[in-house]
Each structure stands twice: as C-alpha cells, then as structure tokens.
Amino acid sequence: MLMKLRLMMVLGMCAALMFGAAPTAFAQSTESARAASADVEEGEVVDAERSVSVTGGVRDDQISNRLAGILDATGWYSGVQIDVEDGIVFMDGLAVSSERQKWAGELAAKTDGVVAVVNRLKVAGADEFSVDPALQELSSLYKKAIAAIPLVLLALLILPLGFFLSVMVARLSRWALQDRLSSPFLVDIVARCIALPVFLVGLYIVLQIAGLTQLAISVLGGAGVLGIVIGFAFRDIAENFLASLLLSLRQPFRRGDLVNVDGRQGVIHSMNTRSTVLVSPEGNHIQIPNATVFKSTIENFSASPHRRGEFDVGIGYDAAISEAQEIVLKELLAHEAISTDPEPMVLAEALGASTVSLRVYYWFDGANVSALKIKSVLMRRVKKALLDAGISMPDEAREIIFPEGVPFTPAAAVQDATVSAPSHVNESEEPDRSIVDEDLRNETQDLDEQMQVSIEGDDDGDLLRG
C-alpha cells in the first residue's frame, strides 16, 4: 500500500510537468497521499514472519472474511472492520482488553496470504467509561457462588460435626485424666491437645473437597512465619505460660504454703497463667511472674511441719560453758512447743572479745507455731535462767574515748555519795510467763482476710485449686 501511494505521488508530479497540470490539482493529490500515509501509521504495524509470494495466492476478500468471522466468533470485539489490500490487513474496532488487541494482530499475521498487519483496534473503556467489565466480573462471581453452594452446605455439616466430636473427646479425656493428674490445669491442657486433631481432621476434609489444600498449606506457612514474629513480640507472655505449665506439673507449693521466692517471703495465695500471688506477713499482695518463680530458688517452709530455729547467747569467760549449756537445754525442754525429736542443741560457736558465743538450735511445729514468737519467748526465758544461775552475760568490749579527760572524784566524796544513796534499789525481774507465751500460733493464720481477696486473673482459673 505504501509503495502504491508513493507511485501515485511520482506519477502525479510527472503528469503535472509533462501536461502542465494546475498546481492546485497536484497539491490535492499530494495532500490525499499524505493523509492516507498518516492513516496507515496510526495503528500498530505487524509484519508476517514469512516470505512474500510473487505469484497470486489467497484473495484479499477471502482473508478479510476469514478474520472477520474469527473475531466475531470470540465475542471479544465489537465494531470490527477488516480491510485487506495486496495482503496488508487493516483492523479497526474495539477489543475488551489490551491482551485481546494484541492477540487479534498476531492472529492476522499468522493468516495465509497476509504480508503485514496494521492493528488499529482500540481497547474498550480506555477512552470512555464502561461498566461492562464490572458486570462481567459480577456475573462470574455469581456463577462461582452458585457452583460453591454444595461445598458450603457440606462445610456447614462437617465443621460443626468435627467441633462436636472434638468437644466430646475433650470431655472424655478430662474424665479419664482427672484421677491421673493432680493439677486441673494439666488435665485441661492435655484434653485440649487430644481433642484438637479431631477438629483439624474435619477442617482438612472440607478443604480437600473444596480443593483448597494448597491454599491451606500457604496460609499455614504464612501463619508459621507470623507465629515466629508474634512469638518474639510476646515472648514474656509465652514464657510465663510455659512456666505455669511446668509449675503445675512439678507442684513445688500449694495454696496456703509459706514460701520464700526470689527473696520475697509470703503465703501462696493463687497462681494463674501469668503470675504467682503471695500474701506477705504485712498483708500485701505480691505478684511474681511465673517465669521468675520457675527459675528462682523456692524455699517452702510448709513442706514439712517441723522447722528449726536458732539464736545466739553470749556468756562471760568466768562462767563454765557446760553449766550454761545445761541451763539453756533445760529451759528449751521445759517449753511445750519445743520438739524432743529431734532434740535441741546448745553448741559453743565462737570465742569473742569479752564473751563466749553459744549457738542454740531447736525444733518446733511450723504449721501451728510462729517462728518469731517462739524465738522471742525462748530468748527471754534463757536470759532469765542464766542470770538466776549467776552466769554473767557481759556486753562486747568497746573503746570509750574521753575527749576532756577522765574526771577525778576524791574517796571521801564517793563515801558520802554512797551513804546518801537510797538503801534499796528497785530491780526489774523477768516473769515466768508473758502475754506472748499465751499466743504462739502462726501469724500466717491472721492473713485469712487477705487470702480471701480476689486477684485479677484468678476468676478465670486458679491453677492451685483442686
């Protein structure tokens, strides 16, 4: 077509020169040729990948009819017009997408007898607003929804059935494990672990029928990566939960036990999945993270009813150690709260600057007797017994400094002061029993009110309740 147009331009120029044609006629022919050339260059030119035949072959009208029939049969094009001149295909009209536009040009290039293709198809909606693509998508979604109704009904049947079976398995597991595991928390965790695969089997069946197993695998893979990220973000929460699980398994203490955890002493109030709550002797609630409790040294004073107490006594060097030991032992054995099995002991501990230090060991019922009260009572009675026996209990040696010198008093003045002093001195005597002796019960029994106070998180489940 281009060669034909150029030939027409050359012939027009020659005719104008030879026959004296008017300049206006030549100008008109030139403008028409340029317009035709511009029309050709507006579309995409596709060359057919084959050699051009010199002899006659397929007619232009046959090529035009064949391509028009194919494009009309697809339903992807509208307003299609196919013009063929000397094997060059000119395509005009609208295509539903750019991919369909390109496909039409490739189709024409593969057609027998086509030399080149000028693809002037335009994409529908590229230049004007159209709701046809949206309507097509809605129609496609509607058809898919209709086709998925049986699968949805099957899922609504299988998933509740799987959930019901998992609940029944969990209840049966709790019934079977309640006598085997002492912690209700462990029973619940193990029962859930046993019942979870039942529900997962039902979910897998639904996904398999729906053909979404690959999607499920992808989701699970993404959930695994997401789980790692969440695990780092909530590491402390996960650590405390695992610690509560291990503490429930090991059971180093029970509710009401007097313990010392991480340097904090108190009575065990409760334990949830995050922390362990203590009630201090002052009546305060102390919440310690379970991870800290699990990793710390736990001193349980209530694990055994027998507890040992001790205190030191200093006697003078002029006293016999054996005599002081007998006096102290006699006072210990005379008290009804002191256990005789094992027996108390009084041992020489150290030789100080002015005293001999004796270490006193004794055993008592820690569940019912206060450690602080019994120690106070014994120290008072031992001191009275030693002083009544004439055994001195001197103070530690000290260095006394007189910055202005030692005052000197004549002997006569001292005698006069002695004569003028009262004839009797009121000396205080230790009674045999005091008010403390009347009430030696454990002070933790006074914390009942604090023990009944509910702590946030205990309502959901106290892991120490049987």
**Shape descriptor:** elongated
Beta-strand fraction estimate = 15-25%
Give me the count of strands: 12
Please estimate the helix content: 40-55%
Spatial gap, N to C terminus:
98 Å
- What's the number of helices? 13
Order of helices and strands: HHEHEEHEHHHHEEEEHEEHEEHHH
Which regions have little confidence, pLDDT < 50, spanning 5+ residues? 1-7, 13-41, 419-428
- Which structural class do you get from the secondary structure elements? alpha+beta
Major sheet characteristics: 5 strands, antiparallel
Strand neighbour order, sheet with most strands? 8-7-6-5-9
Please give the radius of gyration in angstroms: 53 Å
Mean pLDDT: 76
SSE layout and pairing:
Blueprint: H1 2-19, H2 23-42, E1 44-47, H3 60-74, E2 77-85, E3 88-95, H4 98-110, E4 116-123, H5 132-177, H6 184-210, H7 213-233, H8 235-250, E5 258-261, E6 264-271, E7 275-279, E8 285-289, H9 290-295, E9 298-300, E10 306-316, H10 321-334, E11 345-351, E12 355-365, H11 371-388, H12 411-420, H13 448-452
Parallel strand pairs: 3-4
Antiparallel strand pairs: 1-4, 2-3, 5-6, 5-9, 6-7, 7-8, 10-12, 11-12
Helix pairs in contact: 1-2, 5-6, 10-11
